[in-house]
Every structure is written in C-alpha cells, then in structure tokens.
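Weekly structure sync, notes
Attendees: PL, DS, HV (note-taker this week)

Item 1: 2Fe-2S ferredoxin-type domain-containing protein
DS walked through the input record. Source organism listed as Naganishia liquefaciens. Sequence as pasted into the shared doc:
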Amino acid sequence: MLGLYSRPLRTLPRFLPQTLCRVRPISAACARRTAHIEYPATPTKAQSYATPLLPLPTPPTQPPTHGLLLLYTPIPPSEWPSHIELADPFVDAVSKTMALVGVRCIVAHDGDTRGYRANLLVPNGLVASYPSFTQSTLDSSVFKQTLHTLVAGRASPKPLDQTEILVCTHGARDCRCSDIGGDLVIALRNELKRRHAGRIEGESARWKVTDCAHVGGHKWAANAILLPSLTFLSNLRPTHAPLIIDHLASPSDVSLKSQLWPSHFRGIIGATPADQQAAYQSSLPNVRSTSPPSRKRLPVRFTTSDGEPHDVFGFTGESLMEIAKREGLGAIEGTCGGHLECATCHMYIPYALIDDPKVAVEDLTDGEEDMLDYALGIREEQSRLGCQVMLSEGLSEWSMGGKGVELPEY
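Item 1 (cont.): predicted structure, written out as tokens:
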C-alpha cells in the first residue's frame, strides 16, 4: 500500500530494498491518529519520559546555512516512514537540491492534504512563499534565481505574518519524538486555545503549532523550531509550553529568554556560528561570583510534590530558584526575583548538607529565616528558599543520587 503517496514504486532507484520504498504505518507504539488528534498512550511513553536528559552539544550552534526551506507535505505524521526521502522521490529531490546550495530543508504537516507547499525563510524573514510547490517549481528559473539571490546575500525578506512552532513528532524515526514531542504539541495548542478564548479569530490565526519530521537529535526530544526567529530548542517538556509562548510573544524580553535558552538552545538556523554564539551568551543568567564566571553546566534533580523526578540542567552559581522557574517545575514563582521579599521559591533541602564538606550548601541567613515564616508546608530542618541556594558540583552530585531537591505542593 502506498497510502497517500501517489508515485509508483518503479520511480524509485532500483537498488533500494523494496521494504524501504513502501510507505507503511509506523508501529503501534509510536503511531498517531491524525495531525490534530491527541497522541495515544503508547507502551513506550513512560520509557521515553524516564530517559535522563542528556547535555546538549557545545557550542550550541547549528551548522552554517543560508536559510530554511519549510516543505509542507500532504502526508500526516502517522504515515511517515523513518526516512521520508526514501519513500517520496519529490522530497528526496527537494532535500538534495537544497543541500547543494546550503539551505536546510525540513518537512512538516499542518493538516492540509491538498498538496505540497513551501516557505523559504531566513531568521525573522520570509524570502518567498509557494502555495503550490511541485517539481516544476523546483526546476523553474524563477526559483533558481531566488535561491541564487539568497545564497549571494541579496535577498530582501519580508516579515512573517504568523508565529509558528515546529515540533518534531517523527515517531517512526524515534518513539521519543512522538511520545514527548506529541505531548508538547498538545500542550502548546491547549495553551494557545486557553489564551485566545474569546478573542477575535484573526488574532488566534496568527499562531500555529505544526508537526515536523526529523530535525536532528532525537535523543534530545522534544525538539522545536520557533518561527520567525528559526531558533532551535531541545530537551523540552509539555510544562514548557507557557514559557515558549511567552517568549514568542515577547522575544525581546531578556528575562524570558534567560529562563528558556540556557538549558534548551541549540542554535539558530540560517545564522552564522558567531551570531548564534552571541545570541546564546546574551541569554545566560547573571552568576553570583567575585571571580571571573565559570558557568559549568551541571545536572540537578528536582522531585515534585507528587513524587515525579525531573532531571534538568543548570549552571554553577545559578540559584535553584532560577533553574526550577526556567524549567516550569512545581509552584516555584520567585516573585521578588531572589531579593528575600517573598517565599514563593520555597523548597526542601536537608540542612545536613550545610555541614557536608562535599556539598557545602549555603547556610541560612536571618533574612531567609524571616521569609520562611511566610512559606506553606514548612518542614523542620529542610525548608529553604531556592533563591539562596546556588548550584555547585557537590549539590549536583548529591541531587542525582536520590530524590534530590523536593518541591512543595503550594
């Protein structure tokens, strides 16, 4: 069965195994019903979430490219094989053409099954839009001239009229992408629906969450690309949905960027490595130190009030409040910004760690003790304000050996 693919198998190279040429539904463990229906509870989902978060590559940059061709396919994610280009000669031709000129190609599906469409993009700009993208378009002199202009740096991009979030849900490539990526799609759509309830239709239409195929790095699922900036984020969870939308709504807000980028940024498609590094450095949190900053990236485990562990990453010298708030964990708000004017970053860390030379957690100050009087669910010899406890190698090692830092219900 070819599903929605209309091209016969004989158009494919003869040396390809026939099993690779068929478009087969992916396994039940990874399948999705349609592009806009919730992912089913699969046997692999618990295992996908149990996989520890892995450190992102350093430096966090994408390979140099001139831009992105976003190719919308009429085929829904539930029918994507592991390598779409092996089953679809047109996708293969587009991908190879783009690779020759240094333009990234990503396949996506937004529910439209009428045919192929495409947008040629650079960071914060639309170079060209193709409501119908066919082999004739690919071979046309107009399209080739557009690519030449882009590669030569003479393109005149226009602002995009829509904010779009691409999320990799390519389950046939790796179940983690459909399990975690699928949940992120649902969370983003639900959050947008909640925020746009009662607003005019045109306003909600300017936001879009789209399934996309393999983008690279499924071990860091969920992966997302934010348009119009073409920012690539990884190690995402459904709990990040509100923060992602806040960041897209206010991209110049440094405080929002500093909550999201340090642990999730993987670069900007179409930007130079130097520009990507500069953007990343501008997002790093201020680290408390009297000497030149050493921002070593370390894992730290938080456990929520329902007993669910969350392994995330922070930087040496960064407060536990900043890390937990950035990752959207528990009820951590940090309303006062760490100035000891509230107790909304209350968490549980054994006081015994203060005297443990391997961990050496900061001792309580009078100001912290005073503010803890306003915290709910106080525990003797455990209650701390996260803004006053800085991440260190010792604290990181201790947290990963058990429950780690526990978070209250309120």
